[in-house]
Design brief:
This protein is an alpha/beta fold. The chain folds into two domains: 3-70 and 85-100 and 107-139 and 184-279 and 450-509, FAD/NAD(P)-binding domain, CATH 3.50.50.60; 145-173 and 284-360 and 386-437, Cholesterol Oxidase, domain 2. The chain is 25% helix and 22% strand. The chain is built from twelve helices and 23 strands. It has helices at 29-38, 54-57, 62-69, 107-117, 124-137, 150-162, 198-204, 260-267, 328-334, 340-347, 387-406, 492-509, and strands at residues 3-5, 14-23, 43-46, 84-85, 140-142, 167-168, 170-172, 208-210, 213-221, 224-233, 240-254, 279-281, 284-290, 305-306, 319-323, 352-359, 370-373, 379-382, 411-414, 421-422, 444-445, 448-450, 475-477. Strands 1, 2, 3, 8, 9, 10, 11 and 23 form an eight-stranded mixed beta sheet that branches. Strands 15-16-13-19-20 form a five-stranded antiparallel beta sheet. It has a two-stranded parallel sheet with strand order 4-21. The radius of gyration is 22 Å and the shape is globular.
Length: 510
Amino acid sequence: MGEVFTGEQMTASRELACDVCVIGSGAGGAVIAAKLAEAGHSVVVLEEGGEFTRADWIALREDVSYPLMYQERGGRATTDRAITLLQGRALGGSTVVNWTTALRVSERTTRHWQEAHGLETWGQDALAPHFEAVERRLNVAPWPLSLANENNMALHRGCESLGWEVRNLPRNVRDCANTGYCGLGCPTDAKQSMHRTYIQDALAAGAIVHVDCKAERLEVEGGRVVAVHANILDRKSGRGGPVRVTVRPSVTVCAAGAVNGPALLLRSGIKAGGVGTRTWLHPVVAVVGEYAHDVHGWYGAPQSVSSHEFIDRGAAAGFFMEAAPVHPMLSSIASMGFGEDQAAFLERLVRSSVLIALQQDGMLGDPGGTVGIDRAGNPTLSYPFHTTLMEGFQAAYVALSKVHLGAGAQRAMTLHRTPVVMDGPAGLPALADASYGPLEHRVFSAHAMGGCVMGNDPATSVVGQDLRHHAVRNLFVMDGSVFPTSLGVNPTITIAAGVHKSAAGVLAAL
């Protein structure tokens, strides 16, 4: 049986030798750690975040969960502060705090990868058995529409009234109590996140896990990683101290995510293939619908309905629509108002539904964003708002507003600096006159992809189709950073399935 070491337990530095060092414990890192440990290999997992259990979440407090379990205490953003980026920071990665939406990447997207990027081994037929495997382990099943909360039902009713495609979503839960607090950690342990599933499998097979442990640098000699240098962090402050962990593995797997992973490679001087470039988000805009009846959007499964009516808009940016939980702290951050305006917005929260549109960036040849590092080695993310993206924002605002009004909202309101307020369809033309761009309206994302993209050309990609680094031959990258575009669906299941598929390559390298 393996063991989890916390930062508090680490009073002295240590050095470990192992077959595989896995950096990160989210949808990619947990799966590969379990697969390799179960195959009989010695595995060490390094996780920057802490280990949290049901006891840590029972309070269901936003002011506790965001600072402890999100990157940069919930304040991660692009360099111009125009996009707020919510990413998990815990054993299990973002799967600990995501909203349990468990969708497969579409055939349309993988076909684009094959045709535009030459990824012939990443088609639906090749991925299918691996989707099936991870969905079984994570207990993925459709969430009954009868259990959807009013926030999600607004999306369903509105789309049906307009004749648009709409569906109930699969979720990775078991005996879910439908509390609605998935983003703060699951108080009943119903969410089948990685720390409850694949990390447990890895531990049962003997893996060693260090939490509160940040990988700072990969030491490379002769084209191979010879050591991973990590620092033990104080969990509350996030600051490093004198205690170090040095791992000397035969193979290293970087599964630190599409922001922290490229930053780690850059700190290590591994820049080949355009590390950090072609980073993709699903940039999100939101519209608030205010209803005559109570919505209570903080109760019930956060996401149980979605619409992909506009995912394929030809030469224009596609987007998909979902609901977002309406918790007070998250909602107050989302509001563009201050003082009395913000207080009035929160007073109406009980009758408010929040619907979101997520842009599928990267499908039209746009450059995406760039991950870099600052003078201290911390990750930075720049993400320009290109023309197709801003057109997509406007189209998404129109669609979301129509959905709310079609669902019976008394009014729909954007999150612009000066909100566009629509009391009915006659107000929709005002959206054409609104401004779209950085800091003109709220933009969010919880999905980061790319930055270590896979491809066949070492000059323009970081890893091959087997996810092995082109230049550092005992290094694999196994997370969402390898995708050549954004996915057009919530990424957890596709990351897990892609890593499950690619595990054979790591086994062959040992």
